């Protein structure tokens, strides 16, 4: 363990390939996978089967969910080289100077978008539907900060679609799980209303959220938000024609975990990656 520690960088990577990008060393990787395994406990508690979401999201689908009205600055577009660029690539020209063509898709910025779009037109019944997934998510940010703020990161979500009361209960159980897990891992978290990064702070969605908060975050002592409980009302149910039987458009809610941020919180609480890993393994035993 000590040999691995001596090669680890303070930001938790073997090498920093660029802003917001990290390669995790073996200790940090063990923390990441071990924490995600513990986070699946919420899915097990709520009988939410594990699924794998799509790696790309259609621009058309996201537009119907008002993604670009609310978060145009966060999206990371997927492009492909144009046919005209192929000869230049083969000749060794600088790829950064050659033209890209939009694919009509974005990399996911949250795990739930792909799951929700996959359920369009479904009737989940009054008993509702729960799903769990960990996805690699990507966001343009104004700055990056080690494990706290990355360009690409892992987000585990446990999603519910069904009745209004079912959504409320889902978030109550999710919040209870976060508090229990934090206690088990020796983390001190505070809960507060989230301040989502809306592009237009004066827009209707931002004003509505200020009047009726739908997202609460659990944060480490340094202010890093590592988990959130999110109430969507019946917005996605209406936009995607997802129904809950006779209840009409489904209400939805999700509990989300930024896995790298949990790694950061563990190191912050226990001093070193090695000590954090010892505490994690004790919690799992």
From TrEMBL:
Q: Its domain of life?
A: Bacteria
Note the coiled coil stretches, chain numbering.
Answer: none
Domain Aminoacyl-transfer RNA synthetases class-II family profile, residue spans: 42-279
- What protein am I looking at? Aminoacyl-transfer RNA synthetases class-II family profile domain-containing protein
Source species of the chain: Streptomyces gardneri
């Amino acid at each position: 363990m000590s040999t691995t520690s001596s090669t680890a960088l303070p930001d938790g990577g073997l090498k920093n390939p660029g802003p917001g990008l990290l390669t995790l060393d073996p200790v940090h990787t063990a923390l990441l996978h071990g924490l995600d395994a513990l986070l699946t406990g919420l899915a097990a508690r709520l009988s939410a089967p594990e699924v794998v979401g799509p790696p790309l999201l259609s621009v058309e689908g996201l537009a119907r969910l008002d993604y670009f009205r609310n978060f145009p600055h966060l999206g990371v577009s997927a492009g492909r080289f144009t046919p005209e660029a192929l000869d230049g690539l083969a000749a060794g020209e600088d790829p950064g100077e050659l033209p890209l063509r939009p694919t009509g898709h974005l990399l996911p910025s949250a795990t739930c978008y792909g799951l929700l779009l996959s359920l369009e037109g479904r009737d989940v019944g009054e008993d509702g539907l729960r799903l769990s997934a960990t996805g690699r998510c990507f966001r343009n940010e104004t700055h990056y900060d080690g494990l706290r703020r990355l360009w690409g990161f892992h987000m585990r979500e446990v999603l519910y679609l069904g009745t209004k009361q079912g959504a409320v209960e889902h978030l109550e159980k999710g919040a209870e799980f976060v508090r229990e897990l934090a206690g088990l891992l020796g983390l001190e978290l505070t809960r507060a209303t989230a301040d989502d990064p809306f592009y237009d702070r004066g827009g209707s969605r931002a004003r509505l959220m200020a009047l009726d908060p739908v997202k609460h975050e659990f944060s480490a002592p340094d202010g890093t938000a590592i988990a959130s409980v999110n109430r969507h009302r019946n917005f996605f149910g209406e936009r995607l024609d997802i129904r809950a039987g006779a209840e009409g458009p489904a209400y939805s809610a999700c509990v989300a975990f930024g896995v790298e941020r949990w790694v950061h919180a563990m190191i912050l609480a226990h001093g070193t990656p090695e000590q954090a890993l010892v505490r994690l393994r004790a919690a799992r035993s």
